[in-house]
Write a structure and sequence with these properties.
Elements lengths: L1 H33 L8 H32 L6 H23 L2 H22 L17 H5 L45
Helix pairs in contact: 1-2, 1-4, 2-3, 3-4
Length: 194
């Protein structure tokens, strides 16, 4: 299930990158041709900034799509910068969804929430691989617990591989009471008989 989700996220983010870049470019051209101005701003400045913003957001979503594609190809969880990119894309879609609900319509909000859910699902399914679906703790590659533990040590020898280590110095269930390192000296009292 992980790979299809990664491929779907890749396709959706690529389509979104193209859509955002094309929409902002179109708005920039429209502002420039109509000589529109907002609060006395130069129309050429508004047009240029809209085009630059569209290209920047398009490249950002395309980079996120590339990370999702690499996750799908390698079938491994994203790490480092790629993981940060996907998390930031999820946050951006959450914010865009909030703006879309108040400014556009509930359909745009629903689309943003679906993309947000897909990105979170991609991140969570690969996180579960190290958890319950991964190898059992202490198991080697073939599921043999002895393979990873190494050679067994004699019982009671501390510091040897395979010896159990407690987290505290307190005695555990079944342990003997702590004994002094120096044996106690026994004093005999001489019994005196009259």
């Amino acid at each position: 299930m992980r790979r299809p989700v990664a491929w779907i996220v890749t396709v959706v983010l690529l389509a979104e990158a193209f859509g955002v870049a094309a929409l902002n470019w179109f708005l920039g051209v429209l502002v420039d041709r109509q000589k529109m101005s907002l609060a006395g701003l130069d129309p050429h400045v508004m047009s240029t900034s809209s085009k630059i913003g569209g290209v920047a957001f398009g490249l950002y979503f395309a980079l996120c799509a590339l990370v999702a594609a690499l996750v799908a190809i390698r079938d491994r969880a994203p790490a480092g910068f790629g993981r940060i990119l996907l998390i930031s894309a999820a946050v951006v879609h959450g914010l865009l969804g909030a703006f879309a609900l108040s400014l556009v319509s509930w359909k745009a909000f629903l689309f943003m929430m679906v993309v947000l859910g897909l990105i979170v699902l991609l991140l969570m399914t690969y996180d579960r691989q190290a958890g319950p679906e991964g190898a059992a703790p202490g198991a080697g590659q073939d599921g043999d617990p002895e393979a990873e533990a190494g050679p067994a040590a004699a019982p009671g020898v501390s510091g040897a591989p395979g010896a159990s280590h407690s987290r505290t110095d307190e005695p555990q269930d079944g342990d003997e009471e702590p004994q002094d390192s120096v044996p106690a000296q026994v004093t005999r009292t001489a019994s005196t008989t009259p």
